[in-house]
Amino acid sequence: MISMRRHAALPLLTLVSLLATIPAHAEDEADGPRAPIIVTGRGLGDGPSTPAYDVQTIDRDRLKSSASGRIEDVLSSVAGFQQFRRSDSRASNPSNQGVTLRALGGNASSRAQVLLDGVPVANPFFGYIPLSALAPERLRSVRVTRGGGMGAFGTGAVSGTIEMESAGPDEIGPVQGTALVNDRGETQSALTVAPRLGEGFVVAGVQWDRGQGFWTTPKDQRVAASARAKYESLSGSLRAVAPLTDTVEVQASGLVYDDQRTLRFKGADSTSSGQQGSLRFVGRGDWQFDVMGYVQAQDFSNVVISSTSYKKTLDQKKTPTLAVGGKAELRPPVGDAHVLRLGTDIRLSRGNLVEMPYSAVTGRATAYRRAGGKQSDLGFYAEDDWTLGQLVVTGGVRADRWTIQDGYYRELSAAGAVNQDTRFADRDGWNVNARGGAVWNVAPLVSLRAAAYTGLRLPTLNELYRPFVVFPVTTQANADLKPEHLRGYEAGVDFHPAEALSLSLTAFDNKLKDAVANVTLTPTLRERQNVDAIHARGIEASADLALGRVDLSGSLSWTDAKVEASGTQSQLDGLRPAQVPKLAASGTVSWTPSDGWRLAATVRHTGAQFEDDLETDVLPAATTLDLFAQVPVGRFVSIVLRGENLTDETIVTRNQGGSIDLGAPRTLWAGLKVGLR
């Protein structure tokens, strides 16, 4: 009998073998001079159907000029982007760093797919994104596509896809370094080198952030055990790109990171760490291909301190996870009017939790728990873009074979007796999803677009098997959770009344069926359950204006999101999902008076949202102002000044019955940037 792992790998091996037989279309020296070899370090690029969807791209200038230097700060300029909580990756529990779009949130798992150079980066157990490991200065661009995903690793992209692309020597230069300190004595430092080696290049970077942190607890709620949000994060990356022929390049990448944080109380420490490596072959001949494999190991730990006794009540000692996967995509030459993609991808993951609860009275361990399981997803996809004059039509289909296996929950007493030992039934299934759209370039100034799509997200191992406590509320896991299914429609118009001005408006209707939510059963008990749906309808708008050396950009999202629930969940029907605002907006103005200079100001507004599913506790709206300045003082040296939340707006990130956590207060940074060109 062939195992699922071996069986799932066969399509990849078959397509790789096929690609190996395709000849490179290099010129023979006898036919003329050899064309120069150009390596990019990128994938195959976009097809003409990209404008059919609601897409927003963040360029390198905006990536480099955030006030905090954090990727989540940059992504917040895309209205509709949200984490489960408003706090950034210096002052939140890593397991809360799920990201989503289009108001389809409500729990801490990611409903958007996040890719770094084509590799999924979400933690396989919790579904969170290791944001502190993703340094903006190491990126060329970020593309955010709202709505259901398609193509490689499309499973999980029920609210959209966030694609991050690493920078090369053209953007970074041979050497780039920064060193900054803020008004609390915290530091942020980074060094990146990007030498060209022959016809290829290498990029190596390291970033180290550390500090005592700010008070997340309001002054009137602090006790002797209260602590600042201390943090220290270190990440390093290494990437090498080289040509194999004049049409084929190889890309090898590695990423390592370690993150340590303290939240609310002394001893309430969390860690997250990871290592990943990938190998990618990209062919740009007549028969284009993109073949990639990766391996990814992550870990997480967390200590919970009681908010009443201020003693340790839980020690999540470790949560090791392993994911391996890859993709193979082929683009055959089918004529200038078509861009056809044929591909397959696979992701195999497993994770296990080891934790010990403690008595808040005696301080002794009361039990020993383990939980975990395995998941796999094997996908096959095809998508075609067809250009018919001013009209571009696109359609795609994706079939997924998924499994959830070897799920278990085991608890021993402090004396070693078995309190619970449950093995959950294996599950599997096939799901077929599709998307299609069209963009009509009515005139050089106006484009009309429309799209429809479906999607799939499997519940995470955390949602299936791990209960947790945020005193006094216990949230139970649910091994019977069904996969989430998306159905969505959208239509939009893009205006280009002048070369310097771009306007975009999109109306959408997305319904996430069987959405996983933390459903309140009693004042102190919740359970993860599938609700009938989360139904989100709204508008998204963006604008970009370039006036010489002055650029203005803005983004706005207004969403009417409601839970559809019946039966025992009927109390949730018509309510807004937890942690989802109606309105989010962002605007940035930047001025580049001369080369090397950059001055930028960003205003962000996040509307009010509810802490819980019953709309009991409110997180008030917040508006913040950030500033960034880079001023050259020499040929290779610039002064960098940054200001976060300059108006010192009170940002409530958690409100549980009046127990409050706060986001970053006013923070001022100053330092130097060194760059060789």
Keywords:
677 residues, mainly beta, Maltoporin, Chain A, 25-stranded antiparallel beta sheet, 5-stranded mixed beta sheet, 5 helices, 40 strands
Distance between the termini: 58 Å
Shape: globular
Under the CATH scheme, which architecture would be assigned? Beta Barrel
Summarize the main sheet.
25 strands, antiparallel
- Regions with pLDDT < 50 over 5+ consecutive residues? 1-31
CATH top level is: Mainly Beta
Q: What structural category characterises the helix and strand content?
A: mainly beta
Instruction: Give the strand tally.
Output: 40
State which percent range the strand residues make up: over 45%
Tally of discrete structural domains: 1
- Alpha-carbon Rg, integer: 25 Å
Mean pLDDT over all positions: 91
Structure, described:
The chain has 677 residues and is mainly β. The protein has a single domain (4-21, 38-676), classed as Maltoporin, Chain A (Beta Barrel), CATH 2.40.170. 5% of the residues lie in helices and 56% in strands. The protein contains five helices and 40 strands. The strands form six sheets. The chain has a 25-stranded antiparallel sheet that branches. It has a five-stranded mixed sheet with strand order 1-6-7-4-5. A hairpin with a 2-residue loop joins strand 38 (652-656) and strand 39 (659-662). The chain starts with a helix and ends with a strand.
